[in-house]
Write a structure and sequence with these properties.
heterodimer; A: mainly beta; B: mainly beta
């Protein structure tokens, strides 16, 4: 257990529904990342926070995706109007000065 | 061009063999480098950081070649438990982290 917690671990939703995932990073870490991973691929960068500021956002993150980290602690990733192509593992990582540590991920299945 | 490129493999090697993976990166200003290990359907876990002077941890050696913009991972005396996907990770600056697609290793008895 790295100390990064993600909830829920699994989510099955119907196409068109909204979903929200939560990530609780290691408490002293100021950097937080969201990634998406599909089978056979490496994690794809989605967005990055330093404290509460969202510093970078991938162009993969369409306007249906939004992420927040309101108090610089936990973060949420929301997907609106889900599509089947959103099915993937969503990974959160937190980092202090150097290395990043991952949570166990939220596996999303859109049916 | 992708930030980080890796040969996806698969690499199938017998127990006890030595195997090496390379990874190239596109941004010459990249500041830090890592190797992560990922088991099937699990999250990536940090294997080791890659320093300019190289880094060794038991059977694992990581090296950085800034001139050619690649990093390498060498595994000596492969064990069955080394079977996994090895992900190359690069920080191109501004503390972002980009992953390669991963190299899949299977160690065969």
């Amino acid at each position: 257990d790295t100390g990064v917690s993600q909830n829920p671990r699994h989510k099955i939703t119907k196409r068109g529904q909204n979903v929200t995932f939560r990530c609780d990073p290691i408490s002293e870490h100021n950097r937080l990342y969201w990634y998406r991973q599909t089978l056979g691929q490496g994690p794809e960068f989605l967005t990055y926070f330093q404290n509460e500021a969202q510093l970078e956002k991938s162009r993969l993150l369409s306007d249906r995706f939004s992420a927040e980290r309101p108090k610089g602690s936990f973060s949420t990733l929301e997907i609106q109007r889900t599509e089947q192509g959103d099915s993937a593992m969503y990974l959160c990582a937190s980092a202090g000065n150097t290395e990043a540590f991952f949570g166990q991920g939220t596996r999303l299945t859109v049916v | 061009r992708k930030e980080v490129e890796q040969d996806p493999g698969p690499f199938n090697v017998p127990e006890g063999a030595t195997v090496a993976f390379n990874c190239t990166y596109s941004n010459s200003a990249s500041q830090s480098f890592f190797w992560y290990r990922q088991d099937c359907r699990k999250e990536p876990k940090l294997l080791m950081s890659v320093y300019s002077s190289g880094n060794e941890d038991g059977r694992f050696t990581a090296q950085l070649n800034r001139a050619s913009q690649y990093i390498s991972l060498l595994i000596r005396d492969s064990k069955l438990s080394d079977s996994a996907t090895y992900l190359c990770v690069v920080n191109p600056g501004a503390n972002n982290l980009f992953f390669g697609t991963g190299t899949r290793l299977t160690v065969i008895p």
